[in-house]
């Protein structure tokens, strides 16, 4: 996602000015990002809600890459995703999703207000 869009969403949710590129309090910013993503993104594997563990984020050019990991999943036949990241900020929001399981990559896009998709492997 564009880092300025994420920054504005975090500022709105937390009612505080932020600088995502050069944060004054990196631990606080990491907490805000983790909470925001967990609030607006959920993933199920074979019907089981996955616990997303925040790893961190990085800025590349004008994009923010946010990383989570999931532990304890060995095989997956179906992934269900609910993704409404930034939908409240932009009525025309488009979210690109890429899922890789066992070396097989599948992709789709969600045009707001659509927030749900599934992948079968």
From TrEMBL:
It comes from the Bacteria. This is Uncharacterized protein.
């Amino acid at each position: 996602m564009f880092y300025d869009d994420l920054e504005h969403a975090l500022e709105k949710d937390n009612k505080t000015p932020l600088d995502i590129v050069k944060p004054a309090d990196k631990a606080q910013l990491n907490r805000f990002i983790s909470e925001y993503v967990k609030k607006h993104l959920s993933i199920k594997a074979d019907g089981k809600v996955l616990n997303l563990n925040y790893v961190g984020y990085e800025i590349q050019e004008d994009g923010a890459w946010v990383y989570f990991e999931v532990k304890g999943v060995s095989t997956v036949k179906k992934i269900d995703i609910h993704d409404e990241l930034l939908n409240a900020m932009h009525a025309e929001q488009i979210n690109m999703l890429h899922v890789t399981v066992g070396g097989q990559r599948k992709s789709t896009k969600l045009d707001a207000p659509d927030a749900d998709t599934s992948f079968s492997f």
